[in-house]
Amino acid sequence: MKKVSVFLDKLYFDHDNGMGHPESQHRLLAILDMLKETKLFDEVDRLQPRDASKEEICLVHDPDYYDVIKSTRGKPRVFLDADTSTCPVSFDAAVRAAGGVLSAIENVVNSEGSTAFLLVRPPGHHAERDRAMGFCLFNNVAVGAAYIIKVLDFKRVLIVDWDLHHGNGTQNMFYDSSEVLYFSTHQYPYYPGTGSADEVGIGSGEGYNLNVPLAVGMGDKEYVKIFFEILSPVIEQFNPEIILVSAGFDTYLDDPLGGMNVTPQGFAQLTRYLKEQAEKYCNGRTIYILEGGYNLDGLSLSVKEVIEELLEKKKTEYVDINENTKADNTIREVIKIQEQFWKF
Ligand SMILES: [Zn+2]
User: Fold this and answer.
1) Of 15, 126, 166, 186, which residue is the catalytic one?
2) Is 3.40.800.20 the CATH number for 4-338?
């Protein structure tokens, strides 16, 4: 068995947001070209995703909303919000996107120490229980987390969302849950508007929502330091049974939608970090789920770095986090808020 399983499907290419939209099939085509050129495609297990059932999608979505998305099937174009629309096969793609997470979960849970990367469109983390938003139809990562808790009967799922944007949908779906810990780094204030540090969860979910809102201009040093200083003590105390990553690459230094400065080597370091944590706490069980990333070269280079790191073709050195960084004030602010729930 190979160390990394990659899930990809023709439907993920066929979903179409319309002419000139940044969230296009060219994103996956760029990744696919890279995988073939570098021959990384031969080093991973290429697996076929399944469809999610209505019941599985409705673990986090309203049945009425599911029916709204289903009703777009076969129609040339339906606008769901200002920048989110469907083509005739978008519903089928979205059902297989959420199902792909479930296939990846089944694969990773049934095989010791493996990792999966889901190369998926449409993305998911902005989708709310009853609303499409920000290029997202069904919330792929949230369907996966709910499935792990409610169907597989796990008790502790960690979601790490390193996409440029805050995953409002994911946060809201588990805001009152202590079983799903949501950790997000994101440009702030920015779309979608949520994600301040004092959004910590409610009821029994209090403390199980960790937002790290960041000004523009943060790079590898800042991200690696945030992961070590905020996430490490929390992971140790939470002791996750599986890690899901909302892997957006719109923090890449030349992304047209973002203002961050993360390099492909920065993504490699974050991957090394999560790999080490997963090996320490949950038999390596980690699933990377593609979210954003709109610079085609940056996206494919960054995914290459992540997969090479997962395959242990290299071990990218960490930057020195003892130096001062532009994120230090934010790190202090987040710890000050979160230390009522966690020891730092
Ligand atoms: Zn994004």
Assistant:
1) 126
2) yes
